[in-house]
Amino acid sequence: MPADAVLHVAGARPNFPKAAPVIRALDRHGVRQRLVHTGQHYDDRMSEVFFRQLRLPEPDLNLGVGSGSHASQTAAVMTGLEELMVADRPALTVVYGDVNSALAAALVAAKLGIPVAHVEAGLRSFDRSMPEEINRVVVDHVSDLLFATSPDALAHLETEGIATEKVHLVGNPMIDTLLANLDRFDVAGIRAALALPERYVVATLHRPGNVDDAADAVDLVKAMHSVADHLPVVLPLHPRGRRHLENAGLLSHRAMRVIEPLGYLEFVSLVRGAAVVVTDSGGVQEETTMLGVPCLTLRPNTERPITITHGTNRLVTRSTLAEAVASTLATGRLAARATPPLWDGAAGERIARIIAATL
After folding, report:
1. Reduced to 3 DSSP states, what percent helix, strand and coil does the chain have, rounded to the nearest 5?
2. Which residues, 6 or more positions from 342, have their beta carbon under 8 angstroms from its beta carbon?
3. Which of the residues are catalytic?
4. pLDDT value at 119 more than 60
5. Which residues, including other chains, have CB under 8 Å from residue 135's CB and lie 6 or more apart?
6. What is the pLDDT of residues 229-255, one digit of tens each?
7. What are the CA-CA distances from residue 351 to residues 23, 114, 168 (Å)?
8. How far, in Å, CA of 146 to CA of 140, rounded?
9. Angle CA(181)–CA(184)–CA(187) in degrees, nearest 5?
10. Residue 262 pLDDT more than 70?
C-alpha cells in the first residue's frame, strides 16, 4: 500500500451507501485508496449487490469474517486488519457508521498509531443496551477526524470533551447516494415485481430489543399483525431474528409478506412507494426523511433525532404501533418541509476535501 494511501473499511449493508460518495470524491482529488470488505455481511443481497449497484470498486481484500457473536466477529476483523496494516501501513483509515467492523478497524489503527477518520460521528441514542451505541462512543474517542452528519452530533462530541478542531459538520454521505440515484428508483417496477397494491406498508426489523427474545418476538408479531389488518405489510427480513419471528407466527397473517433482503435500488424503490414505513433501522429513518415517507420507528430512542425534528419520523412502541399506523394512513403524507442542514448531496466532497488537505 502506498504510504499516502487511504484505507476504507466497510463490512455491513449500511456502510456501502456511505462509503460510495467518499471514495468517488477522493478519487477526483487524486488520493490513492484501498478498500477492505470485512465480510460482516456476506450474502449477495446484503453486500455484493451494493458494490454493483453503487458502482463501488471491487474490494482489494475481503476478510470474509461472516456472522458470529460480537466478540468473535470483532476479533476476527481486528486480526485480519492488523496483519494488513502492519504489512502495508496506510496514511489514514476511514471507518463508517457503528457496526462491529468500524469498531475493530478503529481500534487496530489507533493502537498502531495510524490516524482514524469516522464518517457519521457523534450520533448518540444514550442507550448502552444497544451494541451500536458502545461502538459509536469508542470509535469517536479514538478518531482523529470526526465527520458529523447533523448539528446534534456536534453537541454530543463537545459534551464528551472531544477537541473541536477534530470535528467537522459535513452532512450525510448516505443522502448523497440517495439523491444521486433518485432517477433509478422504480416504484412501479418493484410494486409489479412483488404484486403489491398501490398502498402498502414496508417494515424492517432486526434490533436485538425487538427480535432476540422469544417473548418480545411474540409481542412484535402481534403488533405487526395489527398493522397488517390495515394494509399489506412487506418485510424484507434480515437473517437476525428470523427464527424467533417465524416461530411466533409472523407468517400466519395473510397480509404479511416476508421476502428476502433486497438490493439498494430495489429496497429504496419499495420504501419510496410505501404509505408508511415501520422500522428499527437508523438508515431507514434518514431515507424516509428525504423521501417524505411517513416513518414509525419501533424503538424507545433514536440516535438520529434530526429525523424527527426535520423529517417524517416518530417513535412508537409495540402497544401504540397499530394506532399510529391508522392515524398516519388517515393523515397521509405530510407537506414538504426543510431538509436537515447540508443533506444536499455534497457530503462526500466535503469529506474528501478535508481528508485531502489533511494528507
Report:
1. 45, 15, 40
2. 169, 170, 171, 172, 350
3. 206
4. yes
5. 98, 99, 100, 102, 103
6. 999 999 998 776 788 898 999 999 999
7. 10, 18, 9
8. 7
9. 120
10. yes
